[in-house]
Amino acid sequence: MKIGIIVFSKTNNTFLVGERLKIALEEKGVDAEIQRIIPENDDPGVKPPIVFINKPDVSPYDMIIFGSPVWAFSLAIVMKEYLEQISSLEGKTVFSFVTKQLPSKLTGGTKANREIKSAVVSKNGTVKKSFIISWKNKKRENEISNLVAEILKSV
Ligand SMILES: Cc1cc2nc3c(=O)[nH]c(=O)nc-3n(C[C@H](O)[C@H](O)[C@H](O)COP(=O)(O)O)c2cc1C
Questions:
Q1: Which ligand 1 atom is at minimum distance from the Cα of 7?
Q2: Three-state DSSP state, 24
Q3: Which of the 8 DSSP states describes residue 86?
Q4: Which of 5, 78, 112, 147 fits a disulfide with 18 by CB distance 3.0 to 4.6 angstroms?
Q5: Cβ(64)–Cβ(6) under 8 Å?
Q6: What does the pLDDT look like over 11-35, one tens digit per residue?
Q7: Integer Cα distance of 80 and 143 in angstroms
Q8: What's the sign of the alpha-carbon dihedral 152, 110, 55, 11?
Q9: How many other C-beta atoms lie within 10 A of the C-beta of residue 57?
Q10: What residue ranges define each of the domains in the chain, with the CATH number in brackets?
Q11: C-alpha 18, offset from chain centre
Q12: Which of 15, 70, 116, 137 has most ligand 1 atoms within 8 Å of its beta carbon, as the pocket-test mutant?
């Protein structure tokens, strides 16, 4: 099984979670790699269409974990645009996670994961489980450990 952890991360929080997951998967002997989505312009005010310097191909992977920050109570526009541009996700196991600043509910995490879910559905895939990591939350470590443990159960 080949696993792709595909993340957009402007200030590396999301990337760090992806790395934690990659290490845990490799410890279990699974072939996992991280791919960074790199747009030409990562300014939050960027308007579509977004041009990508690195637009990871989803086709080599049996399982994909998409990770993105929350921007303005929604999925970061860069991730949203990336998901519109990818090829089919049919037959792949998909997970998603978002990182955000604020610990409280109603600050965009659920909505952002929902946006990933509907983008995945439009590519004929299904999201098995979604996670929210709140960066300023005391429970951040628990949230990351839970994400890693849940995904490890599926490999
Ligand atoms: C333009 C912008 C908008 C943001 N909007 C939100 C928000 O609505 N809710 C929230 O909890 N955090 C928000 N944040 C904080 C980021 O989601 C958080 O710091 C995230 O972990 C950054 O991920 P990254 O380091 O992978 O880029 C925002 C950050 C930026 C730059």
A1: 26
A2: helix
A3: S
A4: 5
A5: yes
A6: 999 999 999 999 999 999 999 999 9
A7: 23
A8: negative
A9: 11
A10: 2-152 (3.40.50.360)
A11: 8
A12: 70
